[in-house]
Design goal:
Elements: E1 6-9, H1 10-13, E2 14-19, E3 27-28, E4 32-35, E5 40-41, E6 44-45, E7 51-53, H2 55-61, E8 72-75, E9 83-85, E10 93-94, E11 97-102, H3 109-117, H4 119-128, H5 139-144, E12 146-149, H6 153-193, E13 205-206, E14 209-210, H7 218-221, H8 231-234
Parallel strand pairs: 4-10
Antiparallel strand pairs: 1-12, 2-11, 3-7, 4-7, 5-6, 8-9, 8-11, 13-14
Helix pairs in contact: 3-6
Amino acid sequence: MSGGAKTTGLPDICTLVTDGTHDSPKLQPSGVPFIKGKHISSRRIDFETCDFIAEEDHFKCVKRVKPLVDDVLFANVGSVGDVARVTEEREFSIKNVALFRPDPSKMDPTYFYYLVVSPPFRGVFLNARSGAAQPFISLEAFRSHRFPFNPDKAQQHKIGIILSTYDNLIENNRRRVALLEEEARQLYREWFVRLRFPGHEHTRITDGVPEGWEPRTLSDLCEEVRESVKPDALEPSTP
């Protein structure tokens, strides 16, 4: 098959194009994760601070659709446009989220994921969300949307490997930055809150101030202190 770009639609390359439950099960402090559009961010599913529902409600939800590994989730209500890929086998339900299941006979799953997050696909729906109080993308809109893709599965696989390699590097760097930021916070607490700075054992502390230290304000240490300019303020006003 030719490796040139062609145009396709989700029904042609997916075995399933659907969305999550339309019900509103009762939320609870713990239980089965109940993922909504707001729980998908930075291409990740937030299983830590998401909502939870009872198992019996979860079983009702998955009668409509049960998320599986390699499914792609696309927030289609409210926070329209956020995308994540299911990368592990675990029980959870979805609401306000569309689900695309790539056809393995036609699509490399990694390539498919990057296809969905690409500007030719995702950009159309990002533009559609502007101006609406509660943005919403219907399943019909997803199913009728046409976009370019590479039909050659061997090339799909290569493209997927290259893009995932870069993503893994970015994710590893993000984790390193997070660790360094946490180390900086702990160092600040250790030195300036707990007052366990180097040599604290031999330093007299009076009224919470180590000997040789002085209380200062931010204005004492900076040439200028002012509020940041909000991005909206930089945009020209509408005539």
